[in-house]
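Q: Structure for this?
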Amino acid sequence: MSVGSQSPGTAETGDAEAVVITHEDVDRAHDRVRVSAARGQRGFFSGARLLWLLVGPGVLVMLGENDGPSMLSYAATGAKFGIGFFLPFVVLTFCMAIVVQEMTVRLGAATHRGHAELIFDRFGPFWGWFSMMDLAIGNFLTLITEFIAIRAGLGFFGVPPWMAVLIALVILYGALMSHRYWTWERITLAAAAFNLVFIPVALMAHPNWHAVGHSFITWQPLPGFNKDVLLIVLADIGATVTPWMLFFQQSATVDKGLTTKDIRFGRIDTALGAALATAAAVATILATAPLFAHQMSADNFQAGEFAQALQPIIGRFGASLFALGMVEAGIVASITISTSSAYAFGEVAHKPHSLNLPMRQGKAFYSVLSLCAVAAAAIVLIPGLPLVYVVLVVNVVAVLAMPPALVFLFMLVNDKEIMGDLVSPAWANVLATAVVLILTAAGVLFGISIIAPNIFAALGGK
Amino acid sequence: MAKKEEAQVLGSAADESWVLSSLEHDQLVRAKKHHIPRRHLKGPELVVLWSLRLYLLFMMVVVGYQVWIAAR
């Protein structure tokens, strides 16, 4: 490629097309140079450095999905059903998440386009807007629940709601202020690592390790088959696979600048994120399992109430960690979910959309990101709103919206014109089809249990 | 103003060629302005997409009904 002499920031490509080099390009090039340098060296430390440079979107999406409503679902699972079927079930749901999210890594690395952009370009605006509508509604409802979790978690320490929300917004903007994807990613990763605080909380609850091992091997005791169980099953699935994850990880993969050479590390990143998130999810079930043993009703418990209920069992320090874990879950998810909305908006509206953008060049991107977060935070502060229903249904809505989103993903990742040799292999398609069928079947069963309880009873449900 | 900022970022032709050599062509912001061509959806694909769309709309009504029941 020869460099043109028209003006700084402009170059000529081989096909005589003018290429304007932007601030975003320069930042991304800096990141790629470091990756290339690490890849050019051999040895364990170079490999570890390469991994350090390339992890991010996968860990963030998985720990981001361990959000407020997800952690509440896991807490409710432990409190209602104790140690048993749901421990291995949660591991299974994260395996489903790996299958799905790996596809977004391949799509992002192969096309360098975000998920929303690809849907609009390949399937047209009609299907694109449907997809965006699902994302926008789901993201906004989920964002509200993140601020509910933050408010409830900090409420445990006596922090007033307005201050709790303000703290969350300050952290969100603090991460954004660098106007650099790399810095944003590292700050958010550091915050997300706090999700693992549920592990020491679980240890403080002194779980019965024999029962834990038994449940992982036998999937027993089974919880029975009734509406409550079905709702928890759906909530736990919705706690691991949701539409925003598809949009976020693909866009973040593109923003980070991953290429097809990095796909292996993208897979490791995704699997590592899933492993960490599984550990936190299982730990949360174990932490609240004593409530089941003590026959305490945890119906409609919020973050603060779980922490208070656990205090006699794990002490004030353990309960404080639990509440802080809920706050972290809400903050990290509010960052990642609002970012996924902003990415999707930028891709569809053809506005610059990158965390590498200076504020002046990324006004629309940062405005959407801020607007989503501030609006959700403001709604949480309105007194008297029945927000408990939002918390109850948000994970269920996520599960119901997944099959249509997955079919778009499935079609894109098998599209030879854009994926070339990176189309999904047959075994990956079988797994992805199984995930779609499981999610659809779970949704249909849920629908039957609500509108036709008699048929549900005939199927063995109560 | 934005151009001035870019000029400060990219001081020389060498800088520009460094960026171009570090990124794949498709990764450049400029390249992303080109749309990926639309594909024609086949009959079975449309059936699946419409079925899932109707499924989602129906299930949203069910969720609304569940919330209404819970609120009562």
